[in-house]
Amino acid sequence: MAGLFITVEGIEGVGKSTNMTFIAEQLTAAGHTIALTREPGGTPMGERIRQLILETPGDGLSDLGELLLMFAARAEHLRTIIQPALQRDETVLCDRFTDATFAYQGGGRGLEPALIAQLQNMVQADLRPDLTVLLDVSLEVSAQRVAGRGEAEDRFEQEKSLFFARVRETYLAIAAAEPERVKVVDASRPLAQVQADIATILSSYLS
């Protein structure tokens, strides 16, 4: 596979959607053909699984069931979207990937990282993102931004602050363990500053 695989991660309210668009624009300007996608989702089956996960009440789906659904969606995503795009030498830009599973189902839900790693190897083999942009904000900023949306909260957004503290801690631990791949951006600052940092990361990485 010759294409690049770039992922964007972070807890709720970090501005992933806005900055995904910015990253896509930067990559397109640099001559890349972009396959823009998301997890869970990205395929018709994946989107159905996404809806099932996000809309099922907390007591209606076990933590293990949630984890297995995530990887079921991922298996189809890899087969139908990600791997074909990489084989076409496209740059895949994905809103969340397996780091989110380690963070949310591992850190947040408390499932064993070894179990997640086993499923990761089974579903992905040796495929890993080339670059991950981790947008980071405090729990306070996250809560303020989510509340400011004025939208109904999904299954994850309804979780308590302790859950998101564990998720964020896991994300930052992944970044500390893999600094060459995972680049942390302070997303609590004005958007122009955040995107300036992202542009620098992309420029440095692509060069």
CATH topology title: Rossmann fold
Specify Rg, calculated over alpha carbons: 16 Å
Percent of residues in β-strands: 5-15%
Briefly note the structural class of the backbone: alpha/beta
**Assigned CATH superfamily:** P-loop containing nucleotide triphosphate hydrolases
Distance between the termini: 19 Å
The CATH architecture name reads 3-Layer(aba) Sandwich
> Any idea how many domains?
1
Stretches where pLDDT falls below 50 for ≥5 residues?
A: none
* Widest β-sheet, arrangement of strands: 2-3-1-4-5
Q: Could you tell me the mean pLDDT?
A: 93
Please write the CATH class name.
Alpha Beta
Anisotropy-based shape: globular
Approximate helicity band: 55-70%
Element order: H for helix, E for strand? EHEHHEHHEHHEH
**SS field, number of helical segments:** 8
Count of distinct strands: 5
Q: What does the largest sheet look like?
A: 5 strands, parallel
What can be said about this structure in brief?
This protein is α/β, with parallel strands linked by helices and 207 residues long.
